[in-house]
Design a protein that fits this description.
The protein has helices spanning 21-24, 40-52, 67-74, 101-119, 134-137, 140-151, 165-174, 195-201, 228-243, 248-257, 272-282, 289-293, 306-311, and strands spanning 3-5, 12-14, 16-19, 57-59, 83-87, 124-129, 155-161, 179-183, 204-208, 264-268. It has an 8-stranded parallel beta barrel with strand order 3-4-5-6-7-8-9-10, surrounded by 7 helices. A two-stranded antiparallel sheet has the order 1-2. With 315 residues, the chain is an alpha/beta fold.
Length: 315
Amino acid sequence: MKRSVLGNTGIEVSQIAFGGVEIGLPYGPGIHSEKDMLQETEAIALLLQALDKGVNFFDTARMYGKSEELIGKAFRHRREEVVICTKCQHLKNSAGELPDDKTLAHIIRGSLEESLVALGMDYVDVLMLHQADLSILKNETVCRTFEDLKKQGLTKSIGASTYTVKESETAINSGLWEVIQLPFNLLDQRQAEIFDLGAKKGVGMVVRSVLMRGMLSDRGKNLKAPLAAIEHHISQYANLAAKEGMTLPEYATRYVLDQDKITSVLVGIDKPVYLENALETAGLPALNKKLLAGAIPFPDPEFINIPYWDRMGWL
């Protein structure tokens, strides 16, 4: 599999990154409890299969249930072969407030310490902020603590998981955050406007939400009435893909892989077939002109908000 250096970090990562949330906790359409998830031995086997087939970049987080522990067990004897990215626990309380500086630094350090114990490792390759809004990205204690953890060798590089274009732009322009993980897909292409900036500044860019939690697949059919416009737009992608001999997930994933400023594409994987599909898609040729012309984003991107749809019971 193609590998590229992640921005200016010097870390070489595979084009496909293994998204570890699905192996750690119930997540995504149709997954309601641990009964619907892979068992430990199955998850470990899947992680090892991914590594053996060329995937070396594994994404997890303190908030992803058993994900870190499973990744640690899988790669206990193969640490030098893998690149591990984890994210620290959420920093704001339920009221959306940050704690005092001393507590904030303690939370960040404690989160990484817990991650290292769960992983059974003495360092991670990338430590990221989870849900990094503008106030967090600009917080001096947050920035200083992440810098200190890097200086201490507990992480090789530091980054931020962002949601809005402004957050991504702020992180890139800071000169501090070396890796950005951002949402980008056929439906929501707003982040494309900062791709050139990120590349110019030497920031590694990793894309998540490629399939919109499975919406850009067969799961995007028979949606509830409030999502009728979304379903119609998805059906247009699906029809075009079928005419060009592709599945919708192949089209959606290949579209993101074809963005030349992006280093790696995060794919949620909790079944061997999803791994195989991701690998096969990475091996496909670039999209033709018809497919590129049909990659029209949803006209109201502000409406795209899966957590809100979930809360409203639309999924």
